[in-house]
Amino acid sequence: MVQNLALRGHGPVYFSIAWLWHRLVGDSEWLLRLPSLLSWLGVVTIGTFMVRRHACPWVGVLVALLLLINPTLVQFAQLTRLYALAILLALLGMAWMLHIEERSRPRGIIVLAI
């Protein structure tokens, strides 16, 4: 299964993570899907905290609920693909940009660019 990931157009970062994870946990289907699930839980957590910080607490809870019940996003969490990790990395970049903007640190933009 992991060997087929390279043929489906996944980038080297996710393929490397999937290869290493396969070596660590074996061929169990459930365990091979665990990194995507953990990435998606990170998306829900970071997204909720970002919204709570920049809006109000009940809107953060609403965002978490919407992220958890959206069928497309739940499917991304179950697939052994790059989608959940890509969304997590994009959200982390956005959180970093908001942090830089709040602190007015131009060095942070350089770190983000690298």
Model description:
The chain is mainly alpha-helical. The protein has a domain at 35-113. It is built from 7 helices and no strands. The mean pLDDT is 80.
Rg over C-alpha atoms, rounded to the nearest angstrom: 16 Å
**Which secondary-structure class do the elements indicate?**
mainly alpha
Number of strands: 0
Instruction: Specify the helix fraction band.
Output: over 70%
The span between the termini is 33 Å
Q: Number of helix segments?
A: 7
**Mean pLDDT, as a whole number?**
80
Sheet-strand content, in percent, reads under 5%
Pick out the low-confidence regions.
none
Shape: flat
Please describe the biggest sheet, giving its number of strands, its sense, and whether it closes into a barrel: none
H/E topology pattern: HHHHHHH
Note the topology.
Elements: H1 2-7, H2 12-25, H3 29-54, H4 57-69, H5 71-78, H6 83-103, H7 106-113
Based on the model shown, name its key terms.
114 residues, mainly alpha, single chain, 84% helix, flat
Put the structure in a nutshell.
The protein is mainly α and 114 residues long. The protein contains 7 helices and no strands. The protein has a domain at 35-113.
